[in-house]
Specification:
- This protein is mainly alpha-helical and 290 residues long.
- The protein has a single domain, classed as MetI-like fold, CATH 1.10.3720.10.
- 70% of the residues lie in helices and 4% in strands.
- The chain has 13 helices and two strands, in the order αααββαααααααααα.
- Strands 1-2 form a two-stranded antiparallel sheet.
- It is elongated and about 75 Å long.
């Protein structure tokens, strides 16, 4: 049975892909599904309940009949539209963080695992980075570089690089003395060619699995940073920002916190389910148990 068939037969993969497909569709169609500009404020509709209907005045002076499907915040902004656009931010942060962390960790791990003299230097650096709590590193980088989307992605990705480095190093150390690598050396292949053509393809499966878990962690970390006021600027519609603004009036409008949370939890869960399913199929140890 091919890996594709095994993936499709895995219920965790199917469920995770289905949820992520819905979220991705919502993110792409946010400008059309969103019933209002996520940053537009209307003082006539401050902290209204979910399902409230009314005539809203647009910035250009025009008016339209509008339904606040999830209510509004204490600035009169539509929660439904903000949650939809927040889906774009969260999925983008998760994907970009995973790519950046995997790329950086893969480069360092391959150098450390293949070149013995480099190993001691790289691993001492990695050990030092892992001694610092990830959230503290992220907060420090955001404070130093300023709150912006690239900065937040970098701040979340940097603490993940040492973990990927250790994973790739272990994989490369297990492959560098294999017969097919020795054969490539005997054919006078360069070290770069051996790493790229012979070793990297054999390390892709664990890296893909690790990337899904990094993406899930990144989505959650971005929400935490924004909730604490240390992530993206408050005017950017992210799930963390929406919840941070909603906690002020949680007793009167609990939906301002609960609605974005109802998107955040399935997102993280779906990515983790996808990662678990990929691990079960791509990791030989788990495949033998199935």
């Amino acid at each position: 049975m091919s890996n594709w068939n095994k993936l499709w037969r895995n219920s965790a993969v199917r469920l995770g892909c289905a949820v992520l497909a819905v979220l991705l569709l919502l993110a792409v169609l946010a400008p059309w599904l969103g019933t209002f500009d996520p940053s537009a404020m209307d003082p006539s509709f401050i902290s209204v309940a979910a399902g409230t209907r009314g005539e809203v005045t647009l910035p250009d002076g025009q008016t339209l009949q509008h339904v606040f499907w999830m209510g509004s915040d204490n600035f009169g902004r539509d929660i439904w539209s903000r949650v939809l656009f927040g889906t774009r931010v969260s999925l983008g942060v998760g994907l970009c963080t995973a790519v950046l962390a995997i790329t950086g960790g893969c480069l360092l791990g391959m150098l450390a695992g293949y070149f013995r003299p480099v190993d001691a230097v790289v691993m001492r650096l990695v050990d030092g980075m892992m001694a610092i709590p990830a959230v503290l590193v992220a907060i420090t980088l955001v404070a130093m570089l300023g709150a912006s989307l690239p900065t937040v992605i970098l701040a979340i990705a940097v603490p993940e690089i040492p973990r990927v480095t250790r994973l790739v190093r272990a994989l490369v150390m297990g492959l560098r003395d294999e017969p097919f690598v020795e054969a490539a050396r005997a054919l006078a292949s360069s070290n770069l060619t051996i790493l790229w053509r012979d070793i990297l393809p054999n390390a892709l499966a664990p890296l893909i699995v690790q990337g899904t878990f990094i993406a899930a962690s990144a989505v959650l970390t971005e929400a935490i940073l924004s909730f604490l006021g240390l992530g993206l600027p408050a005017d950017v519609p992210t799930w963390g920002n929406i919840m941070a603004e909603g906690r002020v009036q949680f007793a009167q409008s609990p939906g301002n916190v609960m609605f974005p949370a109802l998107f955040l939890v399935p997102t993280v869960l779906a990515i983790n389910l996808l990662g678990d399913g990929l691990r079960d199929v791509l990791d030989p140890k788990f495949s033998k148990r199935a």
